[in-house]
Each structure stands twice: as structure tokens, then as C-alpha cells.
Amino acid sequence: MRSILLRTSCAATSASRIHSGASVIEIDAAQPARADETGAEAAEIAAAFAAVRDSYRMTDLNGEIDALDARVSGKIQLSLYAAVQALLLDRIIWFLRNAPLKQGLAGIVAHYRAGIEATERKLDAILAADAREGFESRAAELVSEHVPAALARRIARLPLLAAATDVILIADQAKSPVESAAETYFAVREFLRLDSVGKAAREIDV
Do strands 23-28 and 15-20 pair parallel, antiparallel, or not at all (unpaired)? Predict the structure, then answer.
């Protein structure tokens, strides 16, 4: 099974390509609005792509999924790649809109990677019961399909970790520790039932 390659050569070509399994997602530089409403150029998309990939350590994560060849079903393996791809595409848009990409990737990646990892370490202590139940259920489902427990938990956390970049932004603006911002963010998210609102919105036919 071929993984998401998580490579890009936008700076040298006219398009950004993300490979996942047998499919190719292509963002044409001639029509950047397809990638983002901000009208990002190819070089900006490439930078955002690299920032997400490296901040979330997606190359390592895809390597772990690659290692499951012949150990799990093709359907399950593809679902793991799809979970990584969903986070990747979602956060590319976020980084285009919110991260100072022109300041250089090294500092951005170091900053966001540290914040993402701090948020992940805090999750078990701050998740509300419903969110924890959903996370544990997904992890258990993957383990039952022979996905190693540690990888299963990482994949199950990905939808929650999408919020880590917002947590980091809040921490930066409030000049507070990421752990404190994460606790506040997830408490407010639970109080306002934002997950339920988002789920209902996605189910609306338009």
C-alpha cells in the first residue's frame, strides 16, 4: 500500500500534488482559489503543506501506517491514510490564513510542533466525557482490526488535534502556556457543544 508521500515541489512546478493511496490531489497554481479562498499562490500552498506535514510529524505517522502492509486489511489501512489526509488538507487552509509563513518554516514548525505535542499530552486530562468516549471507541475499533494500540490512539486523536493550532494561537495572543489555553479551549468547546453543532452543520444538504 502506498502512503501519502507528503512531498511537494511547488516552488519548481506549476502544481502542488498530494498522493494518497492510488489517488492524487492536485492544486493547480493557475487556479489557486481552488485551494483557498484567500487566493494563495503555489509557493504559499507548498509552504503551508510543509508546515502542516512537519508540525504534525505526518511523515513518521505515514511510515507507521506503511508498516501495516499485510498486517491489516486494505480497507483499514486506507482509512488510516484518509484520517491523516483529512487533517492535512484542513490544516493547510488554517496555516494559509493564520501562520506567518513568510517568516520561514523552521521557526514555525518548531513552534507549532511543540504546541501540538503539549496539547496532545494534555488531552486525556481535559477531554469531556462524550469526547473521551468517542476517542476511546475509535481507538478500540482500530485495535480490534489489528492496528497497534499506540498508533490506533494517535489516529483516533487526530480530529481532536486539529484544534491544537487554534489552542496555540490563543496561547500566543494571551501570552499563556499552551496547556492552560488547551484546558480553557476544550472546556468552552464542550460548554457550547461546538462538536454537536459542527456535526449537525455538516449533515445539512445544500
Answer: antiparallel
pLDDT bucket at 190, cuts 50 / 70 / 90: confident
Separation of alpha carbons 192 and 190, rounded Å: 5
Kindly tell me the sign of the dihedral angle through the C-alpha atoms of 58, 64, 68, 72. negative
State how far the Cα of 71 lies from the Cα of 110, in Å rounded to an integer.
34
- In this prediction the pTM is 0.76
d(CA 142, CA 148): 8
**What amino acid is encoded at 92 in this protein?**
I
Q: What letter does residue 104 receive in the DSSP assignment?
A: -
| Cβ atoms within 10 Å of 122's Cβ, excluding its own | 20
Q: pLDDT, tens digit, for every residue of 152-163?
A: 999 999 999 999
Question: How many CB atoms neighbour CB 205 within 10 A?
Answer: 3
Residue that has been written with the C-alpha cell 505526518 in this structure: 58
Residues 26-53 have a mean pLDDT of 69
